[in-house]
Design a protein that fits this description.
Length: 273
């Protein structure tokens, strides 16, 4: 079952309208939400990003916070997923009408849910720098919009070049993010985690929001940085993190980084995986 505009219907029974603005223009946002240990993970951070995204795109909010939470839990329940780990996708887009300039600001939405397994931490040593995609800062580059072409093309390049991960740069050559995750550089001695500034065109991910809020509780500092590849030093361990989990990068191109075991332990404690 899926939830389409507040109604539970069988998956596959929905019909795509030709006038659908998500399909025509990518006019909306989406969230990937993890349910684990009978809890919606990082729900407050997801809600914060939904509010920011819809406000930026000038789309009216289709539900209140508690109503969304109940919608997610009801969908998990009807699909028999309340005792399992699950991945939910929430799509919100503007109702039909108009060409590029819309005729209204009200929203439609769709929620899907499926069983998922906890992602195991992986250590990558085949990591490259993207050659086909360069990110650009804009008023909405930090949002998770329905227009995800840079990440689709990055995913294709990663496959073609047989890398385990790909790092995306800004148009000015600054490190921005990984192909589907924010990226972090951890100096254990200084108890400092460095992550690229949003000015580099990266998405303001849920993991990034959670880390910025939680670091103080673990005696850590988080600094937003504008670094190029030559700024990376061998005393850093490197991680990519999204709501699904953590990966540790051992080598970028030919540059070796720290092994990262202690960093993984600390990050798992912060994110409660």
């Amino acid at each position: 079952m899926i939830n389409y505009n507040g109604n539970l219907i069988p998956s596959g029974s929905e019909t795509l309208e030709v006038s659908n603005r998500a399909f025509q223009y990518g006019d909306g946002i989406f969230e990937t939400i993890i349910f684990r240990k009978k809890e919606i993970m990082f729900f407050n951070e997801h809600w914060e990003r939904i509010l920011e995204g819809l406000a930026c795109l000038k789309i009216n909010l289709p539900f209140k916070k508690e109503a969304l939470k109940n919608t997610l839990l009801d969908l998990l329940d009807v699909n028999g997923l309340m005792r399992q780990s699950a991945r939910m996708k929430l799509y919100i887009w503007r109702k039909p009408g108009g060409l590029y300039a819309p005729e209204q600001q009200d929203a439609q939405f769709l929620v899907t849910a499926e069983q998922s397994q906890r992602k195991k931490i992986q250590k990558f040593d085949r990591v490259g720098i993207a050659k086909t995609v360069f990110l650009q800062n804009s008023a909405f580059s930090h949002l998770k919009t329905l227009s995800a072409l840079p990440y689709v093309i990055a995913g294709l390049e990663k496959q073609e070049r047989k890398f385990e991960e790909l790092i995306l740069l800004s148009q000015d050559g600054f490190i921005a993010e990984a192909s589907s995750s924010n990226i972090y550089f951890f100096n254990l001695e200084k108890r400092t985690i460095y992550t690229p500034s949003l000015k580099n065109g990266c998405i303001n991910g849920v993991s990034r929001r959670h880390l910025l809020k939680s670091a103080d509780k673990f005696d850590l500092k988080v600094q937003e940085i504008m670094w190029k590849l030559e700024d990376l030093t061998a005393d850093l361990s490197v991680f990519t993190i999204n709501v699904a989990g953590i990966n540790c990068i051992q080598k970028i191109e030919m540059k070796k980084m720290q092994e990262g075991t202690e960093g993984i332990r600390i990050l798992e404690e912060i994110f409660k995986w």
